[in-house]
Input
Amino acid sequence: MSDPLQALRDDVRMLGTELGSVIRAFEGDRIFDLVEEIRDLSKRVRQGDESELETLRSLLLGLSVEQSRIIARCFTQFLNLSNVAEQHHRIRRRQEKERAGLVPQGSLADVARRLIDGGRTASEILETFDRIRIEVVLTAHPTEVLRRTILMLNRKVGELLAALDSSELTPRASSRLHDDLRRTIEILWKTEEIRHEKPSAIYEARGGLMIFEQTIWNAVPEVVRRMEEDLETIGIQQDPSFSPFRFGSWAGGDRDGNPNVTVGVTRRTALRARWLAAVLYQREISQLRSDLSLKEASDELRAMSGENAEPYREVLHQLEQRLRTTIEQVERALEDETYQPGDLVRHEELRQPLMACWRSLIETGHETIARGGLLDLLRRAATFGVTLAKLDVRQEAGRHDLAIAAATGLPFDQWPPRQREEWLLEQLADPTPADVDQDLDPESLETLETFRMIGSLPEETFGAYVISMAASPADVLAVEWLQRKIGRSSLRVVPLFETLEDLQNARATMERLFAIDWYREVCGSSQEIMLGYSDSARDGSRLAANWALYQTQEDLAGLARRESWNLTIFHGRGGTISRGGGPTRVAIRSQPPESIDGRMRVTEQGEMIQARFGLEEIAERTLEVYVSSILEAALTPPTEVRREWRELMSRISATSADSYREIVYSTPSFVDYFRHATPEPELGMLNIGSRPARRRAGGGVESLRAIPWVFAWTQTRLLLPAWLGADEALHEAIEEGHLSTLREMYEQWPFFQSTIDLIEMVLAKSSPSIAARYDAVLVPDDLRDLGETLRERLARAVAVIGKVTGRANLLDQNRVLQRSIEVRNPYVDPINLIQVEVLRRLREEGHAEGLFEAFVTTVNGIAAGMRNTG
Output
């Protein structure tokens, strides 16, 4: 049998050879030979030759700061190129399967066929498919360490690998492609990868929009067309303008803890999204107008065209003119804050002339023509509306209380929740705008101006108003007061439940909210609720948070059924397992079945945006997996969750939370150890995001944002947030004689299986020997016992996970991932060892010449090797 990974190995070898040539050409034979020597030593250490470890350390310690930086760059560049090769190989394997007539696992065709085989009818599948709405919300969280320029060059490498796969290449064409590849890698080597200035919030927002123009704009119609074809194979015909996808954004709208996101930033971000949407539509309609030169048309279209001899061109010309006007108006609005653009502000204004063209072509017997570019454009319109991605606004609940107190002169923020609730309901009964005191503190004024700005822009500009740290109905009503009394807006208000306590109280909070007549009348029968994966895990362990999230979803779904309202759960997932990350299909499969009824919002954050949407074919696969997974989850009979399983899960969850908190919050030396053993103090100086690393200066773990908390442990390879607590909880359950039940849960309960599998994946990426090196060099003697304890607990986590899964080695069930990690380790390990020494010198010598640049290079390299870092 042919080796499915051989082509990937060939690509990696080719890229490594080209990179080696560039290194030798620009850095000299000495550096090239050093890289090869370090790589060889690192491989031998990983193969079990511990005697070479001290040789490797001594070699790295003998490097100058500049040599350390260059060596770290070499390994980082190789890891980045390997990541590109892996992405390309995923595309190649899918194409190979399709050429062989095989149905890719997890595709809509695969899922639909299995559902049919399982007894579901085509009408059931269509009914469920029609309900599916996936909204992917792109965020600007600072875990994407690569500069946009580097990302673009990596994208070009991927395109060249794809071109080299062609069997039609002549020797000359192949040679030219290899030359282009060498040139691109040379440019990569000569391009500065370190940001010397912190990206602004506007810069982050532009980066978020870039991914639409690069890949998502073309991926959406292609994947919808493919899904339509898959459904046709089982006799299902789909509405032509249907698309299950929607997009949202937090970049430029998420002001929770980020003072850099101002009213002006949010306004400019919203306008830029509308400008880019108009530009992209204008480009497509111009091409479509050129194609549709037909004369035969319906009476409807002729009337719209003024009986023009070429009616399609005339109707599309009118639409194109409106788009050009929109572009001009938005450009003026970007220059003049007082100007409000007014043309083409609603999706229906875009859709209506396109649908008229569609109906005319169908009516006159030209369905083949209709199903070309016009159909793609209709699906883009359904997906992107007039703004590409509706902008969410997010703010912390306490900021709203302070703003209302400042605006009214009342001690509103000091009142208990029930008193605030009663006052707000009394105020909301009167539609009169609030009489606001103009002498306000800057923070309160900014909050009020945000609501005024929201009310000044077209309704379809924004998606939701998300309240972080929501804990009571008063938090929701406060935003409704600000919308009606200050902004004259009506965004849907979404409470975000984040801590373990708030998750556990979410049902009671929503039950109380829906008992309020005014609220029921205003929101009707629909409610969106966001669940936070990051803070809940940091609050009380990933295992406990996972169970709390599961139970909360069950409770909310049950409440929605009882109260007859449509529930949409907004999943605030990050890239790492500690923040709700992991494979999409696994994540959806592990949700409570009752919580999935076709509607879902989910965040894609940081480096995961590039990983899942950076290449067009990968973006198509990502979107298809979302739909097929939700379809499968909605129509697959749910697993019976036995009472015995629930009781055991509750016990191990409580033990996990207690064990985790005992270390993280109750061990006096923990914060001190954390700041010595990891690069957390230095991460705040990196220019990888506009948002501060901490909600407030100083403080302990609770003041640190979830992203740098996870990022710091990822850098040292201890990866503590993903497994701490689970080790003790599972060990105790096994000691009490529950191993057979745990194995039964693992084999039969998707939620528990995915929980264990994701912990196993993190453990496979961990490296206690690397973490020990950080301790040996950076941690004071009186704190090292804690590090030793944590590494012992890591070893115990590996052991108990093996007992639950029944596997001798981590990831034995996933040899591809297992091998990927094994191959990467010898390249990541030297970067870690360099980082340890650079950190030591940074802390002893301060920002001596080149030290900080060397540190940033190591951060980039470890992030590239670990892949999902935030």
About this structure: The chain is about 65% helix and 5% strand. The mean pLDDT is 90.
